[in-house]
Design goal:
The chain is mainly alpha-helical. The protein contains seven helices and five strands.
Length: 164
């Protein structure tokens, strides 16, 4: 953790009702958070790692708790909350390929299941269900990522400062 933040936390333990100290600590947390995030060559702040995302989420909670009366800090936490919420969203990578694979898996699974049903082969029916379900799960695992991962990968060539 940042030495200034550590020092201010220790001071706050001795003076928990000191609103000026609480505000200074909240501002120190803001500076620490901003310094931990990645920055592109266009000076755009970017969440580029899970650690950054978690630190940002923690900073939002701390700042809101420490200095809810500071409008500038409130604006910062609101904006950062929106960034974290966007970063948390799950998105498809290469959606057309994932969709094509999913359609093939479903059609193959259905074909095998119908064949197993018509021939009375329970083993084929169960095998088709298990394999097609596993294949669909594999497609989801292979093609779904959190938004921050996709953004970080696509911005990798323009990241000037990678943060923590």
């Amino acid at each position: 953790m940042d030495p200034e933040v550590d020092r201010l936390y220790r001071e706050l333990q001795a003076r928990p009702d000191d609103n000026e100290l609480r505000t200074r600590l909240a501002w120190a947390i803001r500076r620490m958070t901003e310094a931990s995030l990645a920055v592109t060559t266009s000076q755009v702040r970017l969440i580029a790692s899970d650690r950054q995302r978690q630190l940002a989420r923690q900073a939002i909670a701390q700042i809101v708790e420490l200095a809810p009366w500071d409008s500038e800090l409130h604006a910062f936490t609101t904006g950062l909350s929106a960034e974290v919420e966007q970063a948390d969203r799950w998105v498809w990578q290469n959606r057309p390929a994932a969709l094509a694979l999913a359609i093939c898996v479903v059609l193959t699974g259905l074909g095998l299941a119908v064949t197993g049903g018509l021939t009375g082969d329970v083993t084929l029916l169960v095998t088709a269900a298990v394999i097609s379900s596993a294949a669909l799960a594999g497609i989801v695992l292979a093609f779904r990522r959190q938004s921050w991962q996709v953004t970080a990968r696509s911005a990798q060539s323009v990241i000037e400062y990678s943060g923590i």
